[in-house]
Amino acid sequence: MNTPGSRPTNRTELRAVPDPASPRIAPGGLRELGLINWSFTRIASKVIGVPDAHIFSTLGRARGLFRGWLHFSALLMPFGRLTRRDTETVIIRVAHLRGSQYELDHHLRLGRRVGIDDAVAQRIMDGPDAAGWRPNQQALLTAVDELVETRDISDQTWQTLSAYYDRRQTLELVMLVGQYDSLATTLHVLRVQPDFA
Fold first, then answer.
1. Maximum Cα–Cα distance for the chain, whole Å?
2. What CATH superfamily is the domain 84-190?
């Protein structure tokens, strides 16, 4: 057992469950976010259908960094080269692997808009070995698993992936996984509260 302030010594200790009722940085309002970020957050919350989109009202406190992150994120989703369904498949898989309920809550809803019903969502969470995947989907999910678990893609998986996706799409896939893996970490560390009850 570790003493207070010491570093964890095993993976179980690293995955301690946070207190879900205690955000480390509270969502901000107009004063904390500034007019631009606050306005974006209000509009996004209305579009999402929640009183406050906590991801935006929390990260928005970073002001200019937040706007840069939004731009980068939007270039991957929804304006990326991967299909929206492939994009949501990737995000749902990353969220599942990382245990990010916040990401899952939002992207299962977004996935429904592109044909990812409950049965398909469950197969995504079951992974690349689940029955019923086409070869390109299996390669996509295998690449996601390898990236999240090993921070690399094997040569065999890369070769299979490259048979279905062009260079820009494979580059985008790596960046998309990295973005949502990083976001899962950010949401976890900051204890960002769920938007949906």
1. 51
2. AhpD-like (1.20.1290.10)
> How does DSSP classify residue 193?
P
Instruction: Tell me how crowded residue 82 is: count the other CB atoms within 10 A of its CB.
Output: 20
Residue 179 and residue 87: Cα distance in Å, rounded? 12
Question: What pTM was computed for the model?
Answer: 0.88
Cβ contact 75:67 at 8 Å: no
Q: What is the CA radius of gyration of the chain?
A: 18
Q: Would you give the end-to-end CA distance of the chain in angstroms?
A: 35
Dihedral angle at the C-alpha atoms of 44, 107, 55, 37, nearest 10 degrees?
-30
Task: List, for residues 18-67, the tens digit of each pLDDT value.
Answer: 556 799 999 999 999 999 999 999 999 999 999 999 999 999 999 999 99
Q: Hey, what amino acid is at 86?
A: D
89 closest CA partner among 53, 50, 139, 55: 139
The full set of domain ranges for the chain reads 25-76, 84-190
